[in-house]
Specification:
The structure is a single chain. 25% of the residues lie in helices and 42% in strands. It is an alpha+beta fold and 134 residues long. The protein is built from three helices and six strands; from the N terminus they run ααβββαβββ. It has a six-stranded mixed β-sheet with strand order 1-2-3-6-5-4. α2 packs antiparallel against α3.
Length: 134
């Protein structure tokens, strides 16, 4: 995912009052740093597609992003996922980096990771944007 879109999404998510109250700035790409205070969010590109262009400069993009809301208890993990879904599902607008996006959610998935004894509520979103808008 282009760095500017990542920065814009980070600002959108962590700038949401309900999410900020639960995690502050604890949102990380791919993996939580060791000894991260919970709850926290990790996110990763889970798939996507690019529109056809005549060169490799970009064009329309659809990214499938997975957000894992991780907590020590199921209720907190679910509350974090609900706040995330409220913030992102149906969002149409310009991110802080200037990228215009449309976002909608897919089906949620719940997990319990027994080794670290953590609850994980995952939510995937499609994020549509134009890599090089004209």
């Amino acid at each position: 995912m282009p760095q500017n879109v990542k920065a814009g999404l980070y600002s959108l998510v962590t700038g949401t009052t309900a999410i900020n109250a639960l995690i502050g700035p604890r949102m990380f790409p791919v993996q939580l740093p060791e000894n991260t205070l919970l709850p926290a969010i990790r996110y990763m590109v889970a798939g996507g597609q690019s529109g056809a262009t005549f060169d490799d400069s970009g064009g329309p993009q659809r990214w499938r992003l997975q957000f894992d809301c991780i907590a020590d208890d199921a209720d907190t993990a679910e509350a974090l996922r609900n706040a995330l879904t409220d913030a992102l599902d149906g969002y149409n607008g310009t991110l802080s980096d200037g990228t215009y996006v449309t976002i909608f959610s897919l089906q949620p998935i719940d997990f319990y990771d027994s080794d670290p004894r953590q609850f994980r509520c995952a939510q995937e979103f499609y994020i549509n944007f134009n890599r090089n808008p004209s």
